[in-house]
Amino acid sequence: MNIESLKASISADNAYAGKTVVVKYGGNAMINRELKTAVIEDIVLMASAGIKTVLVHGGGPEIESMLKAVGKESRFVHGLRYTDEETMEIVQMVLCGKVNKDLAALIHEAGGKGGIKAVGLSGIDGGLLKAKQLKTGGEDLGFVGEITEVDSVVIDDMLQAGYLPVISTVALGIDEVSGHAMNINADTAAAKIAAALGAEKLILMTDVPGIMRDVSNADSLIAELEESELEGLISEGVVSKGMIPKVKCLSDALKGGVKNACIIDGRMPHSILLDLFSDEKIGTTIIKGK
């Protein structure tokens, strides 16, 4: 599809106008300049089309780069970054500082003529995200958090005032880690935030085309399925490894009230616009079902 024609066809009475769409931004689309430019343009166009847009981001590559710069070796436990005190300081500095503010600046610059204004937030601001210490398989993960509460008031206020929230996934600790910054998986945070907002749609940007019956065959992409089918796909091994937690996040979002959730290929320029506004089958959409 011609992207310029698609952009020109987006009107103020589109199906998502006035509704909330949460986009989780991560993966290759964050480090490739061309893809980043396309994502920022998509986000601005969404907001310009009257969609209440919330951008939730990670920043694994930037965190890894900073850790290497200070001579800190990374360690992963069950796919999650072990986060000691020093690592948490770097995570907070990179996510809440550099990445978050860079994205807010890019959106503000791209949307300036249309009056789109981004506000950078972290999960700590206004007690937006609260988390207890995550325990996985009895192993210590340090300051990695499991979200216990989402107070979406600050996001709602920003959206009502016409701002575009850009949220970094660092939460405020509770219980034994009370008051401490906690490292949160961005997919999980996006799903929890989407549910708390009663979002119409959750979009997870990844580095794969979507859910495929055969990972070596792009033509086996499953364009749409019901949430009730997910456990079966996991049992069959169709959904495996790193895709399992992503799929579980989408399932949790749907159970929390989100209308539909999808995984799209962030390596494809303008994949967000294609998913929202074209008839082209982009990624895998999961619906609540009957």
What is this entry, summarized?
The chain has one domain (15-287): Acetylglutamate kinase-like (Carbamate kinase, 3-Layer(aba) Sandwich). Helices cover 37% and strands 22% of the residues. It has nine helices and 14 strands.
Keywords summarizing the entry:
290 residues, alpha/beta, Carbamate kinase, eight-stranded mixed sheet, four-stranded mixed sheet, 9 helices, globular
Low-confidence runs: none
Major sheet strand order: 5-8-2-1-11-13-14-12
Number of helices: 9
How many domains? The number is 1
**Oligomerization:** single chain
Going by CATH, the architecture would be: 3-Layer(aba) Sandwich
The CATH superfamily is identified as: Acetylglutamate kinase-like
Shape: globular
* DSSP strand count: 14
Mean pLDDT: 92
Alpha carbon gyration radius: 18 Å
* CATH hierarchy, class: Alpha Beta
- Judged by helices, strands and strand pairing, the structural class is alpha/beta
**SSE ordering:** HEHEHEEHEEEHEEEHEEHHEHE
Secondary structure: helix percent: 25-40%
Most strands sheet: 8 strands, mixed
